[in-house]
Amino acid sequence: MQIRHIQYFLTLAEELHFRRAAEKLFIAQPALTRQIKDLEEELGTVLFSRDKRKVSLTESGKFLQKEGYQLLQKVESIKSSIAEMGTTLSGVVNIGCIGSAMVDIVPNLISEIEDQFPKVKTNIVETTSQNLLNQLHDGQIDVIIGRPHKEMPFINSETIFTDSTVLVKASNSKWDIKKGASISDLNHVPFILYPRSAGTYFRDQIIQACSHRGFYPQIKHESLNAFSILKLVEKDIGISILPKSIAQGYKLLEVDYLELDELDISLDMVVSYRSDIENELPKTIAQILSKQAKD
């Protein structure tokens, strides 16, 4: 028995006229007749007495009319309570993220939280994926947005975004690197990269791509900060390879972003939170991020 069936029944019980009830429900009269018949068959009883002149409620129908009103009131009460829970969700949530998540993902998330849950206060911690995972495990952070990590007990993780990579060079670079260049063209060109402490996957993928072309990249400078890397590249101190989402966040610098087919490194972004702590905020934030990713 569905709520729709109860709504149809109660409307007919009020009107005691199939045509008028169907018009009130904005459905065809045969459809209403069929729905009432299905309800009667499911309940195993006749709800309406029908003849050529009138429609009236049976004793079973009168009982269902009374209970049906109470049922719909209960449904509306549940809906109202759930909606109120959403708007009154409050507290402080500590969100950890890597730098590339600050370009779009985190700002969009904070905007959504303020719209839906105005009583929630957010603290943002930006650091490396490994630091984020350690702080999540220790309870210093409630939810993290970073790179994939090994499976850990009581930690839920879901992919919300997949990034690509770009090569970054100064707009007036002394190194003649053009769109469509080969990785081999990067031999003898200084690299400016994230240090290993920022995470090994991305760095190792870059080194592996170069080694497959017969050379090891000359890593001249390292920095945890994407803006610092880009400023060094802008001064033509070297080139860098960064997530595309970061590059899109710094469009005013005098640098060029080149997509190289041979540097097709996919970088997943995940949201993770602990499932063994009774706190609805991290799970709610993960659900918001998941919905934004699908939209």
How would you explain this protein's 3D organization?
With 295 residues, this protein is α/β, with parallel strands linked by helices. Helices cover 44% and strands 22% of the residues. The chain contains ten helices and twelve strands. Strands 4-3-5-12-6 form a five-stranded mixed β-sheet, with helices on both faces. The longest helix has 30 residues. The mean pLDDT is 88.
Features:
295 residues, alpha/beta, Arc Repressor Mutant, subunit A, D-Maltodextrin-Binding Protein, domain 2, 3 domains, five-stranded mixed sheet, 10 helices, elongated
Secondary-structure map:
Elements: H1 3-15, H2 18-25, H3 29-43, E1 48-50, E2 55-57, H4 59-88, E3 91-97, H5 105-116, E4 120-126, H6 129-138, E5 143-146, E6 155-163, E7 165-170, E8 190-193, H7 200-211, E9 218-222, H8 226-234, E10 240-243, H9 244-248, E11 255-258, E12 267-274, H10 280-294
Parallel strand pairs: 3-4, 3-5, 8-9
Antiparallel strand pairs: 1-2, 5-12, 6-12, 7-10, 7-11
Helix pairs in contact: 1-2, 1-4, 2-3, 5-10
Instruction: Quickly count the domains.
Output: 3
Give me the CATH superfamily of the largest domain. Periplasmic binding protein-like II
> What CATH first level of the largest domain would be assigned?
Alpha Beta
Approximate strand percentage? 15-25%
C-alpha-based Rg, rounded = 30 Å
* Regions with little confidence, pLDDT below 50 for 5+ residues: none
What can be said about the biggest beta sheet?
5 strands, mixed
Q: Number of DSSP helices?
A: 10
Distance between the termini: 33 Å
- Overall, the morphology is elongated
What's the mean pLDDT score? 88
What is the spatial order of strands in the main beta sheet?
Answer: 4-3-5-12-6
Beta-strand segment tally = 12
Topology as a string of helices (H) and strands (E): HHHEEHEHEHEEEEHEHEHEEH
Helix content: 40-55%
Question: Structural class of the secondary structure composition?
Answer: alpha/beta
Write the CATH fold name of the largest domain.
D-Maltodextrin-Binding Protein, domain 2
The CATH architecture of the largest domain can be named as 3-Layer(aba) Sandwich
